[in-house]
Amino acid sequence: MEPEEAVRQLEYTIDASLDEIGQRAAAGYRPTFERVAERADGAAVYDLAGELCQDVVDGSCPSPAEANAVAERVLDDWAYTDGGE
Questions:
Q1: How many domains does the chain have?
Q2: How far apart are the two ends of the chain, measured CA to CA in Å?
Q3: 3-state secondary structure the chain
C-alpha cells in the first residue's frame, strides 16, 4: 500500500466515524506513512493504517505523535517478523 492510499483510507474511516476535525487530522499522518514506506514496505504501511483505523473505529482520533508511536511499533514488528534488514 502506498502512503497516499493509506492516508486516503484513513480519511474515509475518520470521516465516517468522527467530525470535520478528525478528517483534517488524518492528513497530518502523511509524513508518518511516508517514513514507514521508506523504512519498510507496503505491508507495513497497511499494518499502520489498520491499527490507526481501529483506533478511530474505537472512538478516538490519534494525534500525529500517537500515530508516530504506532508507526515505531509497526516498524519494530516488521524488522523482527518480515526480515527487515
A1: 1
A2: 20
A3: CCHHHHHHHHHHHHHHHCCHHHHHHHHCCHHHHHHHHHHCCHHHHHHHHHHHHHHHHCCCCCCHHHHHHHHHHHHHHHHHHCCCC
What pLDDT band is residue 24 in, cutting at 50, 70 and 90?
low
The boundaries of the domain holding residue 25 are: 3-82
pLDDT score recorded for residue 74: 93
Neighbour-count burial of 58, counting CB atoms closer than 10 A to its CB (0-12 exposed, 13-18 middle, 19+ buried): exposed
Q: What is the pTM of this model?
A: 0.71
pLDDT at position 66 over 70: yes
CB 13 within 8 A of CB 25: no
Q: What is the spatial distance between Cα 6 and Cα 38, in angstroms, rounded to a whole number?
A: 14
What's the residue count for the chain? 85
